Amino acid sequence: MKRPFSHSASPFMLLATTALAGMLCPLPEPARAQGRDAQVLQLDEITVTARRRDETLREIPFAVDVQSRAQLDEKRAYDAPAALKDVAGVYIPGFGDRSTSFLIMRGVGPILFPLGPDDSSVLTFVDGTPLPIGSSNANYLDLERVEVLKGPQSTLFGRNTTGGAVNLVPALPDDTWKGYLRSEYGTQNHRLLEGAVGGPLIKDKLGARIAFRLRGIDGYVNNVVGPDLGREQSATGRLTLRFTPTDRTTWTLSGSADSSDGVPVYYALKGDGFPILAAQNLGREVTKNYAFQSKFEHSFERFTFTSQTSYNALRADLTYNGADFFLGSRITGLPLDAFGNIAGNYFDRNIDQNRFTQELRLSSNPGETLQWIAGLAYYRDEAKLFSMRNVFVYGPAVSGFDNLHQTTTGQAVFSEVTYPVIDRLKLSLGGRYTREQKKYDGEFWNDGTPGTVPAFAEGGKRDYNFWTGRASLSYDWTDKLTSFASVSRGYKSGGFGTFNSLMWAGVPRTPYDSSSIVAYEIGGRGSFLDDRLKVSAALFYNDVSKEQILAYDLQNFAQQSLNLDTKSYGVELDASWRVTENWEIAGGITYTSTEITDVPAAAAAAQAGLKKGNQLPQVPEWAGKASVTYRAPLGIAAFGPGNLLARVGYNYIGPRYSEAGNLAKLKAVHLLSARLGVEWEKGEAYLFGENLLDKRYVTFAQPYGTSVLTGAPVYGTVYARGATMGVGAAIKF
User: Are 598 and 565 spatial neighbours (Cβ–Cβ below 8 Å)?
Assistant: First the structure.
């Protein structure tokens, strides 16, 4: 029987349907603004690289969410969860650590957990170069903008983008020296120090920019036998060099590092009347991300040549208890101290993953009637995963040592062409052909646990050849209103799976199949009322064949890598309105319906509650956002003219299931944030607050079976951080 954590929220269907109908209809072009405020941007002034070349947002024939540097700073968006919480249809499942995070977009993503070290449906890119999936929750540092590309991006961004892509565009050196320094301090010992400086080393020839951030915060879940869970500290830095030997040639080199050290918030006991309390004497996660990127561009008379090279590495060490003492005691009836022996209650996992990519592209120059891009790509991923574990209550299934080494190599050729069919109507056609090979070696050694084989080795290799593509139409009703329609196909290759819960018995892992998606989208974006009102809307439908699922049977701790079919459809509405020179309001509504449409017998047997018709986990039917911003001139005696800035933001995440069996339903989440400060030409000072309602809500709940003491269901849960408040200041130079 399902035991939801809360009742469903009230829908907004009438409002959404009415608003979408109005937004997609062509409207009369408003009169052009005279002397408009310089802060207001027209659609054709927002430049993005959503199709691997510079274009205006108005030209992109699919949904794209763009957040500028100013918007990121205003919202204190220092990492992926903070930057993406306002993006319709994007969710980051919270498992309590950083290195296992991944993204879900419009209901498309790994179900429960990625099956392999390269199993991703939404990848994060830095200026078009891919990061490992374990870097999905990395820090965002010194960015010019964040571009969230919705729907399959396999044509131009390659594999494992069946749901979409997040492209981070770093700030580049300018032709004058500029910089800033920012500091914050707040509750729970939140502290932050960051800065950046850049400018010309050789005028018109060589520029440099360096950026850094130090950040930390204390834990927030009380732990009775160890440090409080949730403590984290991180250090992030980037150095960028930009060579411009001629007016036609640019070469950009960058290197970055991101390191974090903390105590992860792993499963604690969830029960009626039970406080948020943990008992874990192990818990530490250390992650390190390294990246090097090279981008060489030369513009010829009719086209531009680009060579882009990247190397990214992820190192992660995770140590934690296999069972929280309270959780283990409630399930088994054993005393708490039975779980305190580390030798019989631990997980230790080491991840060493790197990715090399090389891409060569030719693309049309801006202004050409026929816009096109074509290229070749090569990639090589290597992942080494070493695990040690022993959780005595589960016996042989959770014991011993194992090692997995997987290598993925691939080559691809791709192209996309955009042609004006008639005045204002453009047709885009693109395709990509990819050849990919995966091979792995796995080893197991016992740790003396009775019933396990002394040692076991396995291996395998598979080849994949696949086509992906996209066709789209866009029509400019006016120079301020555009609508579009697209159909696209994405592909995610199969593999062998990170986990093999039967290695202890000498049974090799079973490969899982590839997944494909056909996605349909119609939408539009427009700017009205002298560019003071901006709206965007999209309807989407995703048909996913053989989506990949990690089936999880906690009765015997067995894990299986399997496939099943899913679908999702919905509507996204966003608008911002500069009501007066001082007031601006913004908001959005997202509706997403998801369904598991086919469940093989093996999957149903492996996952409790899993059946056809279930909703996909971690995706709410309804989500929304709203914000009110007030700016007013303010004379500051010591600093000259300035502005008072006040902003209140609200986010709503509706009820959603935590796992594919639909046994644990999470409550709706209401998040309130605020900022009050003054800003002037050379700096700012402000007060801030996040999650001001102070709700340590559940981000993930896993059914662990029934208690031998009470017979009631027992859930292991992960909690979000409560309220954080503080002060901040920045100087610019």
Answer: yes
